[in-house]
Structures are given as C-alpha cells and as structure tokens.
Amino acid sequence: MSAMRVPSGRSGRQWLRGRLDSAEHAAALLEQKLRALRAEQRRLAEAAERTHDELVAQAEETKIWALRAALAAGRRGMRLAGSGEEADVTISWSTTAGVRHPSGITCSMPADVIGVSTGSSVARAVREQRRLLDAALRNAVPTAALRRLTAEADTTQRRVRVLRRHWAPLLREALARVDLELEEREQAENLRHRIALNADRNRTAE
To answer: Per the confidence metrics, is the pTM higher than 0.85?
Structure first.
C-alpha cells in the first residue's frame, strides 16, 4: 500500500471510494466470466471423457482387425489397401468468455483403392483404421478446448483472488484510515470554532 499515492483530504476519500468501486466491479465481472468458464469446463470434461472411452474401444477394435489383416494378406496386402493419400482435416473454432477454442472438426478421408483385391479382413481393417482416426479427432476437440478453458479459468481465479483478498481489503483499510483522519480533523475544527466563539462572547460580555 506504501506504493499507492492517495490524495490528501476529502479528494483522497473520493479517490479511494472510486478505486474500491472499480475493484469490486472488476471482481464481479471476473466472477461472472469464471462461472461461464466453469460451466463450459464441465461440459467439455464430460465430452472429453466420453470420446476418450470411445477412442480406447475403437483402438482395441482396430488392433484386432489390423492383426487379422496382417495374418491374412501380409505386409504387401496391407500396403496395397492404402492409397498413400492423407486425410483432409478442418477445425472449426468458437469463443467462450473471450477464450477461442476448437469446437468442431471434419475429416475427409482418402478415396478407397479401386481394382485391388486384398480380402475382406484387410478391407475391414482399413475401415476400422478410419474409424480410429475419426474417434481420435472427436476426442481431440473437447480435450484441446478443455485445456484452453482450464488455463483461462485458473488465470481468472487468481485475478479474482487478488482483487477480493488483497486489493479490495487494502483499499477498505486505507479508506477507513482516511475517514478517521477526516473525522478527527472535523472534530478538531469544530472544537476550535467553539473555543473561538466562546472567546468572542466573553469579550462582548466584558
């Protein structure tokens, strides 16, 4: 508080009241933002957990069919089943309480290889691998969004704590001290005024 320069007298009281009002208003806005972030955090956490479980289950299914395809067609059959092209992924973005985060994702898979016979197990393995990619992407969206919102929520919580537990109490303490000083000054001035008034009356009576 020693670094804070408070104007003297009544202007100092008004200055402190203004700073205190601003601090409390800022804390209220940050708490409102924090509630919005926490609500979205809960939703994203549920989505991340659900899609993670789906991803784990799909990974197991993909592993089973990949093994079957490898046993049935060998490495050459697995290579022939792939086109060598990459999937095209597009991420959509949203903003929650001022935080930009991924909100959706689309994936365009490579076309199937035409005219190559690799067997049903290989074809199934390819489908399961594509489903695995889709599951991974669906899990990545809420996971990444949750990470961003959690970081912002933690930062916002710290700011609220500084305002509520540090800055506002210091301002209230300073305001109380200024109020007391002004009250003592007014009492002293009133006392001097009464003394001067009584002295005038005494002189007049003489």
So the answer is: no
